[in-house]
Amino acid sequence: MLIADCQMKKTLINLKENSNICVIGGYFKIIGKTKIFSKGKYFSAAAEKSKNYKVRHVILVKPKKLIDLDKIKILNFAL
Known about the structure:
The protein is of the alpha+beta class. The protein has one domain (2-76). 22% of the residues lie in helices and 46% in strands. It has 2 helices and 5 strands. The chain starts with a strand and ends with a strand.
């Protein structure tokens, strides 16, 4: 998953100190590791999709665990 950083300040500082992340969207919880990019293919892909915003960085989320909060089902991924 790619997350475009258009206005993040504290989040970016936190992720540089600790690359672990937990994201909840809808009925899913994603737990994983992050990498931050300011150029390259991931940056270009996010900038292309975010044309109305100035993308400063891109956060790549590599999922380690996906939890279906509706069914309480856990899927594990190898990093």
